[in-house]
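Lecture 7 notes: from sequence to structure.
We start with the chain below.
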Amino acid sequence: MSDSGSATPATPPAPSPQDVLADLTSRDVSRILRASSTINWGSRELAEALAPHVRRIDTETDNLDYAGMLHSNANHVVQAVSVITAAAEGRCVCTTYHGWMFYEPEKLEQLGRVEILSHTEPGWSMTFECRCTLCDATYSVEQGDYHYMWWQWSKPPKAAKRPKLRYRTAKNVG
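Predicted structure tokens for the same chain:
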């Protein structure tokens, strides 16, 4: 007799692109939000499979009441459309991270989408340096807290080029 309490529950299979497309074009807010989460945290392959349908998805998800308290739930849908658009344009998904405040570096690292290169002392406010595992782009990520935890992704500032200095040599002096 097995102890069913010690068994790890099976992870449900990922929805197919056809199922996600059906949810996104259903005009049912709860289905659209669930599908948006699947895209925002899903694989690049899923976004690429949905890329030919991005205009239809954008139209079918528009003008609905997504509600939300401190943060409109419509932003999750807008981000999902951005992810699909990036795939349609051949851009890496990481180029959309700056547009959505919920991309937690540690969760993305667990998913294999980024590598955390460094971070400041752990706390409510901290900064991460991350590298995308798909395209090698690097980002500086500020973590903050208000009524909920948020993350702001940005490209790190480019190192300033040192001006070329012209030195006089002993031959030129005099």
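Points to note: Residues 14-91 form one domain. Confidence is low (pLDDT under 50) at residues 166-170.
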